[in-house]
Structures
1.
Amino acid sequence: MEMSALSDAGTFAVMLAGFLLANFLFFAAGGWWFFYRFLGPSIPHREIHATAPTSAQIWSEIRHSFSTQLIFWLMGIGLWFLWKSGHTFIYSRWDERGVVYFLLNFFIIQFAHDTWFYWTHRWMHEWKWLRPFHMVHHRSLPPTPFASLSFHPVEAIVQGLFWYVIAFAIPSHVIWVWVFYSFMFYINMWGHTAYEFWHKDLLDRPLQKILNTPTHHNLHHKYHQKNFSIYYNFWDKVCVTNHAKYDEEYRAIKAKTEAHKTSKIMKALGL
Ligand SMILES: [Zn+2]
Ligand SMILES: [Zn+2]
């Protein structure tokens, strides 16, 4: 291999490490500080759980997040070599496949990840030999934003493989590959906050109830065998795997919030 290719790989490795750490600091550490330290004391009426996370749980989430990021980093470098040697569908000229495809590309990736996450997550619960690996993630109760990447290394590989699915199955602009990681982390962080902020009538609104809520994923951490999806309440609906208590618990949390709300603006907005 030529020296220039190796130095490009080195530059990429440093850039990827910085990118992964910046995302972790912003979404996981930032999300934890914002929800549990800054806002938390003033919003008990938004709490999904009655208990608080222990510091042992949070340190375990941080440790596992770092091993996940190390695995993502190594898998990312592997993917970079495959991309540079022309083995993937990742492209870099934004108009290479047309403007419409460029814009749709992000949503195609999102739907693909919703599908990948739902099924791999469900198999990790249903297949006995995979289950012990996934139980590392379920140690988080109530979850915190640090739980977003708190996986056993085997599960980290399963989740990291999605970026190979993009590379080999979905022609994707390189910018979306980066942007999608941050978007995934952002939504993941929301799912792991133990506070509910969505609209009080969300479940009665035909278009909006397709979105998942923090309550949805929090109930998954509590009851395990239901609520497997991430962005959309699509596969859980199609496969009838929404938890029977989801509606009831969401409405109970929102009723508690409405009863204790002091802000007129938030009242009017229904948030
Ligand atoms: Zn989770
Ligand atoms: Zn699970």
2.
Amino acid sequence: MQPIKLKGVPGSPYTRKMLAYLRYRHIPYELLIGNQDEALGLPQPKVQLLPTVYLPNDTGELEAHVDSTPLMRRFEHMHAGREAIPDDPALAFVNYLIEDYADEWLTKAMFHYRWHYEADIDMAGTVLPLWSALQASPEQHRARKALIAERQISRLYVVGSNNITASVIEASYERILGILDRLIAAQRFVFGARPATADFALYAQLTQLTRFDPTPSALCLKIAPRVGAWTDIVDDLSGQPAGAWICAQDAAASLQELLCEIGRTHAPALLANAQAMQAGEQTMHTTIDGAPWTQPVFPYQAKCLQWINEAYQSLDASHRQRVLQMLDGTNCETLLID
Ligand SMILES: N[C@@H](CCC(=O)N[C@@H](CS)C(=O)NCC(=O)O)C(=O)O
């Protein structure tokens, strides 16, 4: 098996999601850090995002791909054994939904804490540039630190982090720590004794929130140290046997709290974003968790809502029925548009 070439850095949660997934799946990879891709003459993706994954097309030529969620579905089909998507189609759908929450909502907390508080800005500003340029001189490092911090702080508004939304984001982070703490205490992973792509997506944001950025890391240590320890373990599951998926009848009860949290925050955000986009507006204004929420419309997240619906529509009627039963009363059912 040829190793999969990918480009990424440790401070990119989606890079971490992909690497931990590949390690667990025993899929060999080669990680290119910094500008190592340039010397190899690798193709550029249409949108410059990390991780960038280089895969051969039908004629054997390498093509650059971004977006961890569809890439993982591709790897699930390309490689057999230790699959990370539940066999049960209804649970596979719920896995997709939780993965989307981690990738698209929990990342707001990650970006917010990193670029909102002084201690976090200083730490990320210092370490991030070194990850892609270990040999930087002190002058280069200083210049890069200022540039990165300035650029990222100026982008806080993109994920919806501002003085109005900060308290909603922070309260949701504290709640998810508690929810995951209780879930992990009862079972090793979201879907039982076997890690799913939703685990890797949650883990990815938590590598930063619980193990790098000082403000959210301190909160984790105080509220739910187990969640930090879990994050360390999910980092490398290559030595662990693949366990069993949770029984379908037990899943609804064990995931209830997590799904309610998704219904409380991510569902209204996705819906308001799609509605604002449909109305041709540039900014969405809504209420999330009882507080006002304002952020620029995010076209990619309108697609996320569409993909959730496509995944749901691709299920047969009996599985759709089971999904509806699991989502009933969590507010996630509002995401499913007839
Ligand atoms: N949906 C994408 C998101 C990837 C993404 O946003 N990556 C971030 C780094 S974690 C990025 O490259 N941002 C652009 C930048 O930093 O310039 C995925 O799942 O892979």
3.
Amino acid sequence: MSDIYITGHKNPDLDSVCSAYGYAVLMNLQDPENNYIPVRCGHLSSSVRKILESLDIDIPEYKRDIYPKVRDVMMHSDRKIDANDLLTDAAAHYSDKTPSALPVYDKDTFYGLLAVDDIARWTMHELAKGSMITSIPKVRDIMSEQGTPIDAGELFEDARNLLQQSKKRGLAVYDENGYAGYVTRRCFLKCPKNKVILVDHNESRQSIRGIETAEIVGIVDHHRLDAVRTAQPIFIDAEPLGSTCTIVYQLYLRNNRTPDPVTAKVLLTGLISDTLILKSPTATGVDAVAAHVLASIAGVDMEKFGLEMFSKVEGLGELDPESAISSDFKSYKEKGVSIGIGQCEVTQLNDLNDYADTYASCLETVRTKNGLDWAVLMITDVIHECSVLMCTDYKAVRYLPYKQIGKGLFDMPGVMSRKKQLLPEILHAVGE
Ligand SMILES: [Mn+2]
């Protein structure tokens, strides 16, 4: 049984979190031999959190990184040696595994580690005296001073170095609940690899910290492929569909399963969010079929559910401009020009004038911070199917095919997709 983490990209959006959740449910049914854990490697925006909370699920937990830790290699002892036991009682434990240290308890509480050095020291001392070793000491009487315990969350590398430089054979490991296990030098002979499945992304720089130390065992995604090299053949399902949740739904079908109503609602949420209620040009017929089937399993009206969901998305006036811009911000490089394109979803653009100036100056800050030549923000009204483009001052601005409606502001009727509609125009303008 091993733990396999399923994670979406940094800056987790609904498709990323919902597909990780839905895929974990499926994989735990398909493969009970392993434990699939959906996680997220970034913090949720308040809108995404609000929507996930309304689904009544255990929201995938934040996982800071996937680096191997002490807890991945620590040992537990199935037999308990008591500090008041005689050394002969402990002897039996050495015959089978020959460990270099053994945990010792005082009744039920962890007492310390008995190291093989402690036994050797005592024995040699007795032999040096010419003793026939007739009186056997209690375990506690021969235990040497204990080393400083380490934390279960300590990095593998750091703990290995610590133990290598220490005179101790082993160290006790503690976590938030107290004593958790122990490690000896032998635990650090081979660095373990955590297993990860990537959903809604496949590039390691968009992934969880420490991904280079992990073993990627699967990829389910709908973005351009720029995946990592793997040591083993792995499962990959990459399709040009509107959402990763659609692909996950298809994997249920492929395995002759139907998602339960709660999971169906979760998948529907990610699907509707990424495809802007199927109105985005990235939405395909496959997405539409999946959305309707998922809605009927979940017992909701697809359109109504979608509008209700987007009504929970906070207006830009209520948000912190910098986090609103950065929460979905992608960088591109074309002809030596670095460009950043952010996208925000709103349910109406009538209040644009209230926040336009604040956002424009913040966009300029984001541009400088990221060392970009040009930064733009696409504000998409998902209900009325149009967008407004906000641009920092740059010479390519005049080559954009959109009508200017204010300083650095352009009207984009019918434009919903950054990838399919806006990006080609931006790249074209830069090339002029
Ligand atoms: Mn997606």
4.
Amino acid sequence: MQQAKIGALNILAQKEELVSDFLELISFDTKADGNATCVPSSPGQLRLAAFLHQKLVSLGIETKITKEGVVIAKIKASEGCEKAPHLALFAHLDTAGDFSGENVKAALVTSYEGQGIELKNGLKTTHEIIPELAHHLGEDIIVTDGTTLLGADDKAGVAVLLSLAKACMSLDKPLEHGPLTLVFSVDEEIGLSVTHIDVPSLNADVGVTIDGSELGELDTQTFNAALATLTFEGLSVHTCCAKGKLVNALKVARDFLLELPQEEAPETTEGLEGFYHPYELQGGTAEATLKVLIRDFDEDNFKKRQDFILEKVSLVNQKWGREVCKAKIDFQYHNMKKYLDESKFEIVKWCEMAYEKAGVKVFKANVRGGTDGSNLSALGLPTPNIFTGALACHGPYECLPVKSFLKSRDCVFSLVKIISKVA
Ligand SMILES: [Zn+2]
């Protein structure tokens, strides 16, 4: 097992501005709080927003912070590139609510040897935990001390955009670019980031989120998603005289659960297969509530799955002889693929060209979840998701292979350049 060193990270940061910016960003605790009633959900996000705002303004970029804490920076096109499609680039300021992001102490594993990594607090990162580590032999990897997450999701993305801003504003040899808008969003981890962005006012033609994971990943497809909330109504009667009268809502819920196909669950599916995922059951004899996620890549199957839930509701009601079960289905997000396919702008092709230019082999991932791009695409801004290089996000094993991180930046720079040439 290899150990990480703080000193080695400091030396790297002195050589590589992207890394030193990243270290500055992860010093802010921006953990999202799903129970908060304020926006953004944690004050650290506002502090980081103010810090970024100041940095961008000092580069001479027109930047504002919205009342929700979203930082929006507008970079005018280079001379001659004014007609290029307007690209919006997104990264989020918050970190996952699952694990602490306070007082992150990052360190560096140099030339990873492939035997796993022992974090400072004794936690061991193995290839069982992060299979992708096997692709990063001989590379430098930024890790945590085991007591916090790293925050590479998505501060690696934020650092890449900051680096893009610097490159565009450079007096020396500026990166050629069309009109750009950089958006640093809040509360992505609790599913609210797009809610707090006025997408039409960005005036952008195409978007990319810099929020993916392994080197080469390009997310162009996500689930279609809905949430079914089922309520079961029982009839509570004292057990002394319950015979023939008591209706136990929990048993009604059980009947419904048994109707869901076992082979169509997250634990039994992969790739492009959809599923039903009952994830929360609350209640007692008199009343119970069940929440079920409905997920499918295919639009028709997605609709069929919603009908299937309703059929099973009637079946349960028939069995019990009255309306003991009701379902409410709320739409959550769309598969972005259809919007990317329908768009007149070839953003996916441009991303693929950019990866190639940066010497990165593309793998198009079918995300078994959503990205901000799902909602942005549905709102008319076709937005695939680009990798940052971060692995095992949301917990203490989170790490960032430095080479992947640098390649993420290279891909974004290439993309900006490629789009600047599109007339
Ligand atoms: Zn993220």
